[in-house]
Amino acid sequence: MRRFGFYFFIFIALGLAYFLLYPVNIEPIAWSPPPAPDIEKGVYQQNEQLAGIKHLKVNGKAPEDVAIDTLNNQMYGGLLDGKIIRMNLDGSNLEVVANTQGRPLGLKFDAEGNLIIADAHKGLLAMDKKGKISTLSTEYGGVPFKFADDLDIGKDGTIYFSDASSKFSFEDHLDYPLESGLTGRFLSYNPQTKKTSLLLDKMAFSNGIALSPDESFVLVNETLRYRIWRYWLKGEKKGQKEIFIENLPGFPDGVLHNGKDIYWVAIVTPRDKTLDSVLPNPFVRKILRRLPEALLPAPKNYGFVLGLDANAQVRYNLQDPKGGFGQITNVVEYQGKLYLGTLHEEAIGVIAVPK
């Protein structure tokens, strides 16, 4: 009996040592989030306006972004296995046109018809009309892009893009939310000079990028701080940033202007109470990282899209708590419909723009 007690003590001691001392690849930064906004009432009140999303199958997993070729009325998506697919707007004539051999995320067409790609593994890429892929940029200041994420393109050809983290990669989905570190960057690439420039750094997972219609500013999502920044490109505030909207009800992913009056913001998943409660305590987050993945907070399969006007007022609040098409990452409005990217589904979503 005494021997059993001794071994039990050793077992407990080793378990405690593991949870307290085992090395992990995160150095958490303490941050106290504001109380989450109410989704039982108010502008973020739960609803089922996304419950009717149609699934356009892509024969693959997680088309994170959607880019539409308006000349040919075809859309493109980037899949988890690196494939770039193309199909008609109704989902017909699906074909694979290229493979980045990485993880394509943000997609946009430039004025010459090249598809510019933010690839989480390969950096900033360009695909020409024949499907040939070339590399534009892979690093800034000697620090490689670990997580090229989203982009938008100015009328002069300048590409504005995000590197979500210079430390963690796409696959490190447990590490970057638990560290919540300031390793994200917002950059630009000039195709004429082939120069990459840093516009903002020290961001907690820089993500969606959207130019304003007059290109006086660009919006940059800071996913792990539940907010969107406005970075001024012109005028008296050129080079300065300010908060566009903060304390969002979930993790903002992609953002894109519809060319008229709305910035569509994809909320990939609602905020998690457990994660919010441990963000002020780096020590606890290190302990959590040592737990099996099944015991850690996981993204909810929840459909959530916001439409914001130029003053960051919520004009559309579209949800589907049941997650019929969940973990929406990007929203493209075209010809009266919303085309939706996702990190969860094996399809591109489409639904009419609600009145």
- Give me the CATH architecture, please: 6 Propeller
pLDDT averaged residue by residue:
94
The low-pLDDT segments are 4-19
Q: What is the number of independent domains? A: 1
Query: Mind telling me the CATH class?
Result: Mainly Beta
Distance N to C terminus: 73 Å
Strand content: 35-45%
CATH superfamily assignment?
A: TolB, C-terminal domain
The total of helices stands at 4
The helix/strand series, from N terminus to C terminus, equals HEEEEEEEEEEEEEHEEEEEEEEHHEEEEE
Strand order, biggest sheet?
1-26-25-24
Query: Care to count the β-strands?
Result: 26
Radius of gyration: 21 Å
Structure in a nutshell:
The protein is mainly beta and 355 residues long. The chain has helices spanning 2-21, 175-179, 273-278, 282-289; strands at 54-57, 66-69, 74-78, 83-88, 95-99, 104-109, 115-119, 123-127, 133-137, 139-140, 143-144, 148-153, 159-163, 184-190, 195-203, 206-211, 217-222, 227-232, 241-245, 250-257, 263-270, 303-308, 314-320, 328-334, 337-342, 347-352. β7 and β8 form a beta hairpin.
Features:
Neuraminidase, mainly beta, 355 residues, 4 helices, 26 strands, globular, four-stranded antiparallel sheet, 11% helix
Structure description:
By secondary structure, the protein is mainly beta. The chain has a single domain, classed as 6 Propeller (Neuraminidase), CATH 2.120.10.30. The chain contains four helices and 26 strands. A four-stranded antiparallel beta sheet has the order 1-26-25-24, with no helix packed on it.
